[in-house]
Amino acid sequence: MKKPQLYTSDYLNLLYAVSRGLASLTWAASTGWARGDAYPPEYGKHVVYAAVRQIFELVTVPQTQAIGETTGEAYLSWCKKHKIEPSTVDLAEGGRGLFVGPASARNTILYFHGGGYNLGATPAHFDLLLSVVNKAKENGSDLRAMVLEYELAPHGIYPLQLKQAVAALKYLLDAGVQPSQILIAGDSAGGNLTAGLLGHLSHPHASLPEVSLSGDLGGAFFYSPWVSFDTTSDSFKRNIKKDALSIRALAAWSRNFMGAGKNLPDNYNTPKDAPAEWWKDLKVNDKDIAITAGANEVLVDGIREFADHVKVHNPNLEYVEFPNEGHDAYTMDRAFGLTGPLRSEDFAREWLLARVKATATVAPKTASKTAMLSAGAMAVE
Predict the structure, then answer these.
(1) Are 352 and 185 in contact (CB under 8 A)?
(2) Transmembrane segments in this chain: where (predicted)?
């Protein structure tokens, strides 16, 4: 993706946005001691989220893309910081695979990053995947992750990102990786892409190549998936001050992704609205599906409805909400300097590890659902 060019007016707007963000931060910091239940219970999160929401309201996508790193740039910076040799592969349809972990590993997490389809991956994405790869090695299993660098909107619009996700999966299959050794996972917009790919495997999209699998995938993990572009659900009202997301930003991101009216919502790009029948005969065992959400995020009502639809024909899937967490917490919180422990992050790590196929005599150590719930997560049956 070629970065947008900024003009004087853009820099002035950025300066204004930052100043407004700092003003919101100052106000939240000075009045936060008296905040009520409509705000995050943690003081620091309340202050940071207030500033982030304000900045999201004012900064445009071109401005954000111009000053921020692309997924590829973030990956190279992250590799340099951790003294890791970068490993990438060019994929069909213009996508690129960015690897974390040994090239010899067969078990693979095919990961789709969030960012509203408009923003690139962050170091937090690679940090989490590296921690899973390293823990798998300790447990006697080999594992690598391939992060898809898909084209960001509005430079690429739907269904290009789904085409690139299909190309990434086909690359792994053509390389000899068995479906059972592949876990697909994604956060936020990456969760949207995970749902789109899973739907395509059972109901091939008319403009995408079909994918023939010799067996079920090893798992499908959804972390705060963006499953609907609707912003009228009740959780947008009750959680708007508890989350870092901005309704205005969400509207801009979805408009860019859909090509400003060039595409219509369908079962692939708005999976919440897909009927329960759509999720029948998925190419993954329902015991190997997990959907998570933060109880304080504005998207939680939509995620619950999505999980309910999927669960009709997949009763053993796991749906978990995490109290006092906002949207995409392990990415958003880390990106904005919040370093406190996150139950959702621990859950994601342990859930993925539990589905890595053992490649040595030492069985992987996994955390049970009971252990996760005792840590404070709330499972919704």
Answers:
(1) yes
(2) none
Averaged over 42-65, what is the pLDDT?
97
Range of the domain at 133: 70-233+248-379
* Residue 238 located in a structural domain: no
88 forms beta bridges with 98
pLDDT in tens, 295-343: 999 999 999 999 999 999 999 999 999 999 999 999 999 999 999 999 9
Q: Are residues 97 and 58 in the same domain?
A: no
Query: pTM for the complete prediction?
Result: 0.93
Coarse DSSP helix, strand, coil percentages of the chain, rounded to the nearest 5 percent: 45, 10, 40
The amino acid sitting at 238 is R
Q: Is residue 364 situated within a structural domain?
A: yes
Q: Among residues 68, 101, 125, which one ends one of the domains? A: 68
What is residue 53's predicted lDDT score, i.e. its pLDDT?
97
Measure CA of the first residue to CA of the last residue in the chain; give whole Å: 42
**Residue 23 CA: distances (Å) to CA of 17, 47, 55:** 10, 11, 10
Q: Are residues 14 and 111 in the same domain?
A: no
Q: Examine the domain organization and report whether 212 and 77 are in the same domain.
A: yes
The number of domains in the chain is 2
Here the CATH number for the domain that contains residue 355 is 3.40.50.1820
- CA 68-73-77 angle, to 5 degrees, is 105
The catalytic residue among 24, 188, 224, 246 is 188
In this structure, are 91 and 218 located in the same domain?
A: yes
Domain boundary residue, one of 46, 68, 90: 68
24 is catalytic: no
Do 297 and 367 have their domain in common? yes
Residue 365: its pLDDT value, please? Answer: 37
CA distance 191 to 122: 16
CB atoms within 10 A of CB 213: 15
- Cα separations in angstroms, 140 against 25, 113, 146, 361, 365: 46, 27, 20, 7, 9
HSE at residue 155, side-chain half, CA atoms within 13 A, is: 17
Count of helices and strands (H, E) across the chain: 13, 9
